[in-house]
Amino acid sequence: MMAAVNFRGGLLLALVVLCGPVAAAPASDPVHETCSRIARKLASVGLRECLARGLQPGGAHSVQGTPILVREFAPIAGRPPLARVLLVGGIHGDEYASVSIVFKWLRILERHHSGRFHWRVAPLMNPDGLLRRKSQRVNARGVDLNRNFPTPNWHRESARYWERTGRNPRRYPGASPLSEPESRWLANEIRVFAPDVVLAIHAPYGIVDFDGPPLAPKRLGSLYLRLLGIYPGSLGNYAGVQGRLPVVTVELPHAGIMPKAREVRRIWRDAISWLFKRFPERELRHASLER
């Protein structure tokens, strides 16, 4: 069921709704099974690493029944966080690097999480697109999840947009907004978790894109701010423009090649620095970065 929900000053349609040897797991263990499939697909994420990240089922499944895995890093007990941050990778299944880099950042968070921010992290939002034999941008029903979010005049504008692409199957927005379980999951996360900022990882434009209220990060690592514009049904349009929620889209330079380890750390450090500037520390004058 769809309902109008008011958040961040905008009216949106939203859904109401350990290190060491890897032990054998029962076939019914959804985390082990999903990690096994991720490890077989991504050379940069092994089974041990995936299992060590402490991921848990996020309460929803893909079209083909794969759980969307999440990890949460809570703030300091009894103290409100500076901001709630929702970090999502793998919205497009053929953008391998957008998944791999989130696993590297999860490891950084585990080591250096200060508790000043409340994190919710989903490294792979579109498992069906990534984990099939030949990975694809769209989900199992052929829908571009980043065109499936409810934005003004969605039916008319998304149809016009798809016609302009020559009805490119990689850009198919779906039959209706939030028709897909994966996009419904993310819309529900925004409603329930109520993030103050969304970080969405993509490839391969090699830039930083931004939607929503200022201020945008001017640079993350070697990636500079360059606005790509808004599209019917995109996450930036839905949450950033309509919802007045800052959406930072990190476009890595290559879909199939991870940035070097130094660049992975630089992007992360710059993102954390921007978060502290965007949501300034009011109680502690010298907060250590989560790096």
What's the quick description here?
Helices cover 31% and strands 20% of the residues. With 291 residues, the protein is of the alpha/beta class. It has a seven-stranded mixed sheet, with helices on both faces.
Strand content: 15-25%
Mean pLDDT: 90
Helicity level, as a percent range? 25-40%
Q: How far is the first residue's CA from the last residue's CA?
A: 41 Å
Top-tier CATH class: Alpha Beta
Under the CATH scheme, the architecture is 3-Layer(aba) Sandwich
* Main pleated sheet: 7 strands, mixed
Give the strand order, joined by hyphens, for the main sheet. 3-4-6-5-7-11-8
Class by alpha and beta content: alpha/beta
Q: Can you identify the CATH superfamily?
A: Zn peptidases
Overview of this protein structure:
The structure is a single chain. This protein is an alpha/beta fold and 291 residues long. It has one domain (2-18, 27-278): Zn peptidases (Aminopeptidase, 3-Layer(aba) Sandwich), CATH 3.40.630. The protein is built from 8 helices and 11 strands. The protein has helices spanning 30-41, 47-52, 96-112, 127-131, 154-164, 181-193, 235-242, 261-278; strands at residues 2-7, 10-15, 56-61, 67-73, 83-88, 117-122, 197-202, 207-211, 219-220, 223-224, 247-251. It has a 7-stranded mixed sheet, with helices on both faces. Strands 1-2 form a two-stranded antiparallel sheet. β3 (56-61) and β4 (67-73) form a beta hairpin. The chain is globular, with a radius of gyration of 18 Å. The protein starts with a strand and ends in a 13-residue tail after the last helix. Mean pLDDT is 90; it is low at 1-23 and 283-289.
